[in-house]
Each structure stands twice: as structure tokens, then as C-alpha cells.
Specification:
By secondary structure, the chain is mainly alpha-helical. Helices cover 64% and strands 11% of the residues.
């Protein structure tokens, strides 16, 4: 990697860490901002090599817009899944058909695959058990389709349309 690439990766890491700091502290108090900036600079220097491969290239407008759009989409999917699971728990006959299904992903980037696995697991009713190459093994509270194509269509594809642009 060239020197410009290292600088780009470092700056990207510092920016992301600082933004996370601002969200976690929920404060624009000068002392908080200064401490956050110092910690971001130091931690960024120690971790930029493992934090990103593209550096500031991650911040292209299309990726950023898709990431911003993904947040409410994911939150809506979580709300719907929570309501579905609550219904199943509260229903007198508990209409569930649990099982482990295999899904296939189009994602090739490891960070994208991790984001997909976490998105699936954070959505109630599904848990990612294992990832092998482009295959996900998922425990599903109510198996609607046991085929790889059908399960992928219902579980992984909705998230992939965003994650492919963000991470590929």
C-alpha cells in the first residue's frame, strides 16, 4: 500500500471513531469533543490497518446514501420481526415451524458478509449460526421455504440490496 493509501485509511478510521464518540457521548461540550478527538487520533493510529482497506474511498456519496437509507430500512425490519415474534409468543397455539435453513449470498466482501450476518441475527426470529463462503446457515422461527433459493429470497435478499452497494 502506498503512503497516500495509509493516510486515507488513517483519516477514515479517525473520522468514523470520532463520529461514534459523538453519538455515544451525545455531547458537544468542548471537553468531550477534545477528548473524543484525541482518543480517535490515538486509536486510529493503532487500528487503521485492520479498520479499513479503502480508506476515504468508503465515503463516496452513493455508499453513504445507501448506508443512511439502510438504517431506517433495518429498523423497520426489526420492528416488523419483533411484532411477528410477539404474536407467535402470545398466540394460544404458538404457530411456529422452527428449523435451520441454508441461504446463499451474493456478497463477496467479508465486512459485508459480517454486516449481513449481524443484520439477520439482530432481526428477531432469525439467528445466523454459521457462514461458510457464500452460504449462511440460519435458525428461523417459522420456516416458510426450505429451499436455498426460497429462504435466501425471504431472509438475505432484502438486506443484500443495500449491503452490496455499501460494502462491495
Amino acid at each position: 500500500m502506498g503512503e497516500a493509501s495509509k493516510i486515507s485509511r488513517y483519516v477514515h478510521t479517525v473520522l468514523v471513531l470520532f463520529i461514534i464518540w459523538l453519538f455515544l457521548t451525545s455531547s458537544l461540550d468542548p471537553q468531550e469533543v477534545i477528548i473524543g478527538a484525541i482518543l480517535s487520533l490515538v486509536i486510529g493510529a493503532l487500528t487503521y490497518e485492520v479498520f479499513t482497506e479503502r480508506g476515504l474511498g468508503n465515503l463516496n456519496p452513493k455508499r453513504v446514501l445507501y448506508f443512511i437509507a439502510y438504517i431506517p430500512y433495518f429498523l423497520w425490519a426489526m420492528i416488523l420481526a419483533n411484532l411477528d415474534v410477539a404474536y407467535r409468543v402470545l398466540h394460544p397455539k404458538r404457530p411456529i415451524k422452527p428449523g435451520i435453513v441454508e441461504c446463499k449470498t451474493v456478497l463477496t466482501n467479508n465486512t459485508g458478509k459480517l454486516a449481513l450476518a449481524n443484520s439477520i441475527t439482530l432481526t428477531p426470529g432469525t439467528i445466523t449460526l454459521d457462514v461458510k463462503g457464500d452460504r449462511y446457515f440460519i435458525h428461523w422461527i417459522d420456516v416458510k421455504d426450505e429451499s436455498v433459493e426460497g429462504a435466501s429470497e425471504k431472509i438475505t435478499k432484502p438486506f443484500e440490496k443495500f449491503l452490496k452497494v455499501i460494502f462491495e
